[in-house]
Structure formats: structure tokens, C-alpha cells
Amino acid sequence: MASISRREVLTVGAAGALSLAVTDVSQSEETRPMANPREPRVSPFLAFFGDAEKAMNRYVGLIENSQIVSVERYGPGEVGKEGTVKIAAFTLNGQRVMCNDIPGEHNWTFTPAVSLYVENSDEEALAKYFEVLSKKGKVLMPLNEYPFSKKFAWVEDEFGVSWQLNITE
């Protein structure tokens, strides 16, 4: 596991809005450094309802060159269920992704309108991604040839996260 170079704290404000405070605590981050600390870093953020750790471990175990960078858990008396993920960062082949187990009840979840797009030139690897991600999930477009791609699939995994899988040449 990489050394943690940022302290990341998720807070819930008076209106129930989630905010993320990030402060530098060291200089040894293994993920891609920000070109200019004054410029924003954009990362996908996945809000789960109790499955953040399971999903994060599945994704890191599936995609090559991936790792969990940091995990902070809810403690006793905090707004989230004790022991669940308050905030976590992981990389998928170098792409930083954030996630948490969002506290409380919500009338929303993931939507296929926003998906993680994975390209790979290895058809065997793409087939493995499809198999693992579609298991207990939903196939939106089967792994097949399409007019726009030699091999493509669109799946929703068991956690509700949508993935587009595309072969590159």
C-alpha cells in the first residue's frame, strides 16, 4: 500500500451537504502528482451505501496497476455507521478514484449516464473485466462487435456502478 500523503476528511455540514477537506501532510504520494497545487485535481467519486470497501477491493483486484491509497473509517458517534468507509482513495491503472459509504437514506443511486470507461488492447483482459463486472450485475450491452468498435460492452456491476469496456487496436 502506498504511503498516505494527504489527510482527507469528509464532513457533513448543517444542511446535510457533503464536503471534502484535503490538506497536505507529506510529499510522498505514489499517485500522479498535481501539476500545480493551485489547479484543481478532478477525480471520479463513487458514493456507496455500505459496499464501498467491497467494491474498491474488487476494482483494485481486477484492473492491473491499481492500488488502495488511503481509507478512513467512521468511528463511534460519527454520522456514518461505525467501521464503514468515511473516505477512501484508490487508483485504477493510475487514475485516482475516491469513494465512501454515504451516511443516511437517499432517493438516488448510480446511473448509467455516468460510467467508468475502460480501454484495453488485450481481448482476454477485456473479457475478464466483462465477466467479473457483470456477475451479479446487469449487462446493458453484451461484449460484442458493434459498428463503432471491434469489441465493446456496457455493464452495471452489482454495486450499481456503470462500466463501458472497449477494445483498442
From TrEMBL:
Residues 42-165 form the PhnB-like domain. It holds the Pfam family 3-dmu-9_3-mt. It comes from the Bacteria. SUPFAM superfamilies: Glyoxalase/Bleomycin resistance protein/Dihydroxybiphenyl dioxygenase (SSF54593). CDD domains: PhnB_like. PROSITE patterns: TAT. InterPro entries: Glyas_Bleomycin-R_OHBP_Dase, PhnB-like, TAT_signal. This is PhnB-like domain-containing protein. It comes from Adhaeretor mobilis.
